[in-house]
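Protocol step 4 of 6: structure prediction from sequence.
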Amino acid sequence: MFRHILVPTDGSEFSTDTVKRAIGFAQETGATITFFFAKPDYPVALYGEGALIDPTTPEKFAEMADQQAAEILSAAEAIAKAANVSCNSTSTTNNVPWEAIIEAAKETGCDLIFMASHGRRGLAGLLLGSETQKVLTHTKIPVLVYR
């Protein structure tokens, strides 16, 4: 069975529900969890006539992204620890989340990626989120999609 699960999270309500379900799954299987957050890179602004200038420096942007990652990951860890599930967390800066998720799973030795489908409703609910779809398409690691 699965021993080490990567759980990507973005801090959204649906993502938090997925974290809770992954923790329950880990309890059932005795697995360890690594929570993961893909931090965005500093956006390169194209300046031209009528463009707005963002006063945020790359350093300040990175600091805010680090703070956001720390808050989201510590919240996930707190839920896991309350359920007595062994966990840790990691984050990396990458503007392509699906690539970052796969790389994190490889680097941490995870044998399962447990991720949200992005919780769409109606006709869109029949389709998986684009990041989830790309992870499914590009990894050889098993993926469990929570809806």
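Step 5 (inspection) to follow. Confidence is low (pLDDT under 50) at residues 119-128.
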